């Protein structure tokens, strides 16, 4: 958390910081050119950023190495079997022969 010269506190996205100047007030310049003048010293701002980033690294050790546990892939979900539709292959071949679509033939295997 940073403190404005008025005394109000705010949080800044540290990933957007381009540079920090001490002139004598601490001026934080973001990548889009926006400037913030803060009451905190340059050392305090840098320390806060280091603390925040080290916290992220420390918390990352708590994430399981197998991300499949957190975010199952769509292929791991159980899907209902697909049955063949009558006449589908004939219609697809007719469209390909007519030059209507570019297609690949996919073999459907029933369980």
Describe this structure in words.
The chain has 111 residues and is an alpha+beta fold. The chain is 26% helix and 17% strand. It has a three-stranded antiparallel sheet with strand order 3-4-5, with no helix packed on it. The chain is elongated and about 80 Å long. The N and C termini lie far apart (58 Å).
Topology at a glance:
Elements: E1 2-3, E2 9-10, E3 17-22, E4 26-30, E5 35-38, H1 42-60, H2 88-97
In brief:
The chain is of the alpha+beta class and 111 residues long. It has helices at 42-60, 88-97, and strands spanning 2-3, 9-10, 17-22, 26-30, 35-38.
Please name the defining characteristics of this protein.
111 residues, two-stranded antiparallel sheet, 17% strand, 2 helices, alpha+beta, three-stranded antiparallel beta sheet
Q: Sheet bearing the most strands, described?
A: 3 strands, antiparallel
Give the N-terminus to C-terminus distance in angstroms.
Answer: 58 Å
**Count of helical stretches:** 2
What percentage of the residues does DSSP assign to strands (E)?
Answer: 15-25%
The run of helices and strands is EEEEEHH
Biggest sheet, strands in spatial order? 3-4-5
Shape: elongated
Count all strands and give the number. Answer: 5
Stretches with pLDDT under 50, minimum 5 residues: none
